[in-house]
UniProtKB/TrEMBL annotation:
Protein name in the entry: Membrane protein
Domain of life: Bacteria
Keywords of the record: Membrane, Transmembrane, Transmembrane helix
Membrane spanning stretches: 275-293, 305-324
Domain Rubrerythrin diiron-binding: 19-150
InterPro entries: Ferritin-like (IPR012347), Ferritin-like_SF (IPR009078), Rr_diiron-bd_dom (IPR003251), UCP035918_rubreryth/DUF125 (IPR017040)
Gene3D superfamilies documented for this protein: 1.20.1260.10
Length: 326
C-alpha cells in the first residue's frame, strides 16, 4: 500500500456491535438475493432445484427479519450502511454470473460454502457481543447456518426425489457435454491434427526452429480464432439446446489454439532435432488425450476412437513430413 493512502476498509475487530448487526443484515440480504438468482436461472431446466434455492432464500429472509428486530430493539430504526466489501479480510461472494455459468453442481457447492462462511461469521460476532440477547441471537443464527446443509439435504429430499434428482443430473451432464465438451473436443481435434501438416512441413523444409515456431503460432492462433467464431455463429443454441454460443465459441477457440500450440512451442528450443523429437512426443500425447475424451465423454468405443484419431493424425503428420522433405 502506498504510504498515506488507506484501503478504505475496516478491520472486523474495530466494528461496533451496531455495525456488526448491520453487516449481518446486509449479508443475509445478499445471500437471499443470490439464492433467488440461482432459482431464477434454474427454473426452466431444473424446477426442483430452483424450489430448493427459493426455500433457502426464505430462510435467509427470516434471519434478516430477526436481525432487524434486534437492531431496532437496541439501536433504533436507522441501520448503518456497511457491507462485506467494506471489511478487511472479510469473505467475498463469487460473482453470480460466474457461478451460474458453471452449472448446477457448482451452484450447489457454492451454496454449501456460503453457509459455512456465514456460520463462521456469526460465531465470531457472537464472541464479541456484550449483550446477552444479541449474543444468543447470533449464536442461534450460527447454529442455523450450520444446519443449513442439513436443511438443504431435507429440501432436496422433499423436492428432489430419486427420479427428479437423477433426471436433473442427467440433464446437467448432457448440457455440459453439448456446451463445453463437444465444441472443445472439435477444437482440440482441429488444432492438433490440422496444424500438423503446415508445422512439420515447415520444420522439415527449413530445419529452422524460429521459422517453424512462427508458422506454428500463426496456424494455431489463426485456427483458434476461426474455429471460435465459426462455432459461435453456426448455432445460437435456442433450438438445438446446445447452450450459449459464446461459451461454445470460447471452448472451441481455446482448445483449437492449445491443440496447435502443443507441438509448436517445442520449437522454442534452438536445436532442430531436439525440438522436433519433443514435438512428435507431444503430438502422440495430444492424440491419445483426444481418444480418452471421446471414450470418456462421448462414449466412443476405445478401439474405434484410437483407429480414427491416431491413424488420421499419423497420416496428416506423414503428409507434412513428406511435403517438407520433398
Amino acid at each position: 500500500m502506498i504510504p498515506g493512502i488507506t484501503s478504505g476498509r475496516r478491520r472486523f475487530s474495530d466494528l461496533s456491535e451496531q455495525e456488526v448487526l448491520a453487516l449481518a443484515i446486509s449479508n443475509e440480504e445478499d445471500d437471499a438475493r443470490i439464492y433467488r438468482q440461482y432459482a431464477e436461472r434454474l427454473r426452466e431446466e431444473y424446477p426442483a432445484s430452483a424450489k430448493v434455492f427459493e426455500e433457502m432464500a426464505v430462510e435467509e429472509d427470516e434471519h434478516r427479519r430477526r436481525l432487524i428486530e434486534a437492531h431496532k430493539h437496541r439501536f433504533g430504526d436507522v441501520i448503518p450502511l456497511i457491507r462485506r466489501e467494506h471489511v478487511s479480510g472479510f469473505y467475498a461472494r463469487n460473482p453470480v454470473w460466474l457461478i451460474e455459468n458453471l452449472g448446477l453442481e457448482r451452484m450447489r457447492a457454492e451454496a454449501r460454502e456460503m453457509e459455512r462462511q456465514a456460520e463462521q461469521f456469526y460465531r465470531k460476532a457472537a464472541d464479541r457481543s456484550s449483550d446477552a440477547e444479541t449474543r444468543k441471537l447470533l449464536g442461534d443464527l450460527a447454529a442455523a447456518e450450520a444446519g443449513h446443509n442439513v436443511l438443504a439435504g431435507d429440501l432436496e429430499a422433499e423436492y428432489l426425489g430419486g427420479d427428479e434428482r437423477s433426471e436433473e443430473d442427467r440433464s446437467a451432464h448432457r448440457q455440459f457435454i453439448l456446451t463445453w465438451v463437444q465444441p472443445g473436443l472439435a477444437g482440440l481435434m482441429d488444432g492438433s491434427v490440422s496444424t500438423l501438416a503446415p508445422i512439420f512441413a515447415t520444420a522439415f523444409a527449413t530445419q529452422d526452429t524460429r521459422t517453424t515456431l512462427l508458422v506454428g503460432l500463426a496456424a494455431s492462433i489463426g485456427a483458434g480464432i476461426s474455429m471460435g467464431f465459426t462455432e459461435a455463429a453456426s448455432d445460437d443454441g435456442e433450438l438445438s439446446g446446445r447452450g450459449s454460443p459464446v461459451k461454445r465459441g470460447f471452448a472451441s477457440g481455446m482448445m483449437t489454439t492449445l491443440g496447435g500450440l502443443g507441438h509448436a512451442l517445442p520449437y522454442l528450443i534452438t536445436d532442430f532435432w531436439t525440438a522436433t523429437t519433443l514435438a512428435i512426443i507431444v503430438v502422440f500425447v495430444e492424440l491419445w488425450a483426444i481418444v480418452w475424451i471421446q471414450n470418456r465423454y462421448m462414449q466412443t468405443p476405445f478401439g474405434r476412437a484410437t483407429f480414427q484419431v491416431v491413424l488420421g493424425g499419423a497420416l496428416v503428420f506423414a503428409a507434412g513430413a513428406l511435403i517438407g522433405s520433398g
